[in-house]
Amino acid sequence: MLKPEELRDIRKELVILKSGALNTSFETRILEMQSNSIILKNPVPLENISEFIKGESYTLQVRDLSFEGRAVEGSGMNLRLWLKGTEPVDQLENSKRKSDRVYFQEDDEVYCKFINPIDQKTNLKKRVVDISKSGFSLITVGNSKLFTKGLKLEDVHISGDLAEDIHCDAEVKYFRNYISLSGESCNQVGLEIYNSK
Question: Are the CB atoms for 29 and 11 separated by under 8 Å?
Answer without folding.
Answer: yes
